[in-house]
Design brief:
Length: 338
C-alpha cells in the first residue's frame, strides 16, 4: 500500500509565520511523502486536482487554502482523510457534508488562547483609560487634557465578570490576577470543582453577572441557545461607567441593542468581533468616542502564530500514531463555530 502523503497548501507568509524552520523540519521528518503547494494555486488548477495528483491523505491548510468541494471523495485509499487546519474555524474550508462522511479535521484549539486573552486585557485597559477617545482627540483634534474633567479609570480592584469559561477565559484569569479584583463567571456547564480550582466564583444567572461587575468580558461559545443571548435588557444591567468587552463571538450579542446602549455613552465598549464581518463601513459603532474597535485581531499575533503551528505538528504526530487529537473538529464543534 502506498504511504500516505502530507500536502501543505499555504502561501509563503503562512508557512513562515505558523511553521517556523524548526517546525517545518519536524514536519518534514515524518518519513512520509510531503509536498508544499503555494497559494494562490497555479492557474488552471484546483485543490481537488492537487489532492488527486498526490493521493494525499493529509492536508495542512490555512487562511489562503481554497475551499474543498462538497463532492470530494474522502476516507478511502488514495483519498483525503484528515485536514490539519492551522487556524480557527474550518467552516469556510470544509463543507459539513465531508465531515459527515468521515473526514477528520483539527484546528488551532487552545494554541491561540493566551494571545486572545492578552488582546482582551488590552481592550479592558483601553476602555477604562478611554484610549480610543484620546487617540482621536490628540491626533485629529489637537486636544489636551483639562485636569479636572478628565475621567480615566484603573483596573486595580475592579470586579470582572466572564461570560463563558473556556480556554481563553482561563488564560485571561491568569492575566487579571495581579490587579486584585474579584472574578466571577456565568458558565452553567462548569463544575463547582473546576471553578474552585480556577479561583473564580459563580454568577447564578447572566443577569447577576452583568449587574454585579465593573467589567464584563464576552467569551461564551456561539450556539443556537446563546445566539443573541446578550440582549438590550442584559446590556442595560451594566453599571454606569462600566465596561463591556467582546473577544468571543459577535453573534452572541444583539448588535443593534448594543448600538442603542452604547450611543447613550453611559458605558465603555470595546469590540474585537462582530455579528457580520467585516464590520460595515457605515456601522453606527464607528465614530462613537466611547467605543473601541478592532478588526478581529485579538489573536494570535503575527509573532505568536507559531504557537498554533506547534499544535498542528502535535496533532499530525498524534494522527499518524493513531492517537486522539487535542483539537479535533467534530460535527458539534463545527456547528458551534462561526
Amino acid at each position: 500500500m502506498k504511504s500516505p502523503t502530507i500536502l501543505c497548501v499555504l502561501n509563503e507568509d503562512e508557512k513562515n509565520d505558523f511553521l517556523t524552520s524548526e517546525l517545518w523540519q519536524k514536519l518534514n521528518s515524518q518519513s512520509l511523502p510531503f509536498e508544499w503547494v503555494k497559494t494562490p494555486l497555479p492557474e488552471g488548477t484546483t485543490i481537488a486536482d492537487h489532492l488527486d495528483r498526490t493521493g494525499a491523505e493529509v492536508l495542512v491548510s490555512c487562511w489562503s487554502t481554497p475551499a474543498l468541494p462538497k463532492d470530494l471523495l474522502v476516507g478511502g485509499d488514495g483519498q483525503l482523510k484528515y485536514v490539519c487546519h492551522l487556524t480557527g474555524t474550518v467552516r469556510n474550508l470544509i463543507p459539513r457534508e465531508l465531515i459527515e462522511r468521515g473526514l477528520k479535521s483539527s484546528n488551532w484549539g487552545s494554541g491561540a488562547s493566551r494571545t486572545v486573552a492578552e488582546g482582551g486585557l488590552l481592550l479592558i485597559l483601553a476602555a477604562l483609560r478611554r484610549s480610543n477617545y484620546w487617540a482621536v482627540a490628540m491626533h485629529r483634534d489637537g486636544l489636551w487634557k483639562d485636569r479636572w474633567k478628565v475621567v480615566t479609570e484603573s483596573l486595580f480592584g475592579r470586579s470582572v465578570g466572564l461570560h463563558g469559561f473556556g480556554a481563553i477565559s482561563r488564560e485571561l484569569v491568569k492575566l487579571l490576577r495581579p490587579f486584585g479584583g474579584k472574578i466571577s463567571t456565568f458558565s452553567p456547564s462548569l463544575s463547582d470543582e473546576a471553578l474552585e480550582k480556577a479561583g473564580v466564583s459563580r454568577a447564578a444567572t447572566i443577569e447577576d453577572l452583568f449587574s454585579s461587575n465593573d467589567v464584563i468580558v464576552e467569551l461564551a461559545p456561539l450556539t443556537p441557545k446563546t445566539e443573541g443571548m446578550v440582549n438590550e435588557k442584559i446590556l442595560r444591567l451594566i453599571k454606569p461607567g462600566g465596561v463591556f468587552v467582546n473577544v468571543g463571538r459577535g453573534a452572541v450579542v444583539d448588535e443593534e441593542a448594543l448600538v442603542r446602549v452604547a450611543s447613550e455613552e453611559k458605558i465603555q465598549v470595546a469590540l474585537d468581533v462582530f455579528t457580520k464581518e467585516p464590520l460595515a463601513v457605515d456601522s453606527p459603532l464607528r465614530g462613537m468616542s466611547n467605543v473601541t474597535l478592532q478588526p478581529h485581531i485579538a489573536g494570535p499575533t503575527k509573532d505568536r502564530r507559531s504557537d498554533c503551528g506547534e499544535v498542528a505538528v502535535r496533532n499530525l504526530e498524534q494522527y499518524f500514531a493513531g492517537q486522539p487529537m487535542e483539537s479535533e473538529v467534530t460535527l458539534d464543534v463545527y456547528d458551534r463555530a462561526s
